[in-house]
Amino acid sequence: MEKILERHERGIEIHTGNWTLEYNRLKEKVELLQRNHRHYLGEDLDSLSLKELQNLEKQIDTALELIRERKNHLMYQSISELQIKIKEKEKEKEKALAQPALLDQQDHGPNASSFLLPQPPLPCLNISYQEEDPEARRNELDLTLEPIYSCHLGCFGT
User: Fold this and answer.
1) Chain-centre distance of CA 34, in angstroms?
2) Contact yes or no for 103/96 (Cβ under 8 A)
3) CA neighbours within 13 Å on the CB side: how many for 37?
4) Longest Cα pair distance anywhere in the chain, in angstroms?
5) How far apart are CA 57 and CA 67, in angstroms?
6) What pLDDT is recorded for position 122?
7) What is the CA radius of gyration of the chain?
8) Is the dihedral of CA 66, 67, 68, 69 positive or negative?
9) How far apart are CA 127 and CA 61, in angstroms?
10) For the K-box domain, which residue ranges apply (predicted)?
11) 56 pLDDT higher than 70
């Protein structure tokens, strides 16, 4: 019986020793992850060598590329969804404009003269942004106050 108890105690010691090793290994891993996290945040960089700083910069650049790719993908996906919605709305609008004309023709018959002329289709809506030269915009609209001002000079004499 005593031998059995001794073997049992040795087994517990071996098992406990494994847990201690595992604990120390996991503790070191957590410390490494925390140190890397601080480095990614730009903290505690003084202890890094030039090569380590270059590796860190490369990792951050790679991560930034992935982030930008994902952002661009989501933006293009959103734009295509909005374009589909615009086309659907245009079709609905065309149908809505066509229905009153059909109802008028049915009410008045084919011999009645129609005072409504068919309207040309609406232009396609393109959403974009283009920065304009303010001078070109002013010239295009040709909004000046000189003729009005010169007209009123004689009217408001003192």
Assistant:
1) 30
2) no
3) 6
4) 128
5) 15
6) 66
7) 39
8) positive
9) 32
10) 16-109
11) yes
DSSP 1-23: -HHHHHHHHHHHHHHHHHHHHHH
Check if the beta carbon of residue 93 is closer than 8 Å to that of residue 122: yes
Q: What angle do CA 117, 121, 122 make, to 5 degrees?
A: 120
- What letter represents residue 86's amino acid? I
Q: Please tell me which residue, 142 or 61, carries the higher pLDDT value.
A: 61
User: How far apart are alpha carbons 96 and 90 in whole angstroms?
Assistant: 10
User: Regarding predicted confidence, which is higher, 150 or 2?
Assistant: 2
pLDDT at 64 over 60: yes
With 0-12 / 13-18 / 19 or more C-beta atoms within 10 angstroms meaning exposed / middle / buried, residue 56 is middle
Cβ neighbours of 72 (radius 10 Å): 10
Q: Which of 82, 80, 77, 45 is nearest to 60 (CA)?
A: 45
Tens of pLDDT along 30-49?
A: 999 999 999 999 999 999 99
Token readout for 94 is 């065309």
Q: Indicate if the pLDDT at residue 134 is higher than 80.
A: no
Tell me if the pTM is above 0.85: no
